[in-house]
Structure prediction request, 223 residues.
Amino acid sequence: MPDQEPVRERLVKGALELFEERGYDATSVGDVAARAQVGRTTLFRYFGSKEALVFPDHDLLMQQCQDRLSAAGPSSMSVAVTDCARIVLDHYLAEDKLARSRYRLTSSVPALRDHEIATVSRYVRLFTKYLQSASPDDAAGQLRAELFSHAVVAAHNHVLRRWLRGEINDARHELTTAMETAQVLLRPSDDLDSSSAVVILSTNRSIESLLPQLRQALDDLET
Prediction:
């Protein structure tokens, strides 16, 4: 590896290379430090764990998203949320081969997949917090905000996975289309046509905890 390459980048690249060559569990932090030509102390100065080497930038991305949301007014909050999805997608697109290597790794290592799911939940909670603060206090408005947060993250992940698998080339265009679809969830019921829709989403909340909100939202739609 070139001497001028930043230590942090050498560590991340070296870690992903070794994880693919030897397997995640069979690779130690000492192996990664040696590949990057640094000591273990230096590695832990940058990363607190082996797991953090696989997901090195989510804290930075979360902060960028929070900054974007904090700067948005109530009327532009949904646009700010979709901008956050673009911020994260652009980061992965810039990583290119590293992002594809991470995808292969997280697809094959259950512990890393669990970590990724937990990270996704952080984005959902962040978006929900800001959207609900700018939404009507009624149950239907609060529920639409939560559904939209899940929809944005699900749409982003759908587009990202298609790009990582090589199924699409213009991920940015596809994300724009996906975000336009997600925006429908924020529209009040009287702005929609009379057709019915079923929304299926993944959430870390139990169905029992969601049912009261869903029932209240349905009651509001019928009145």
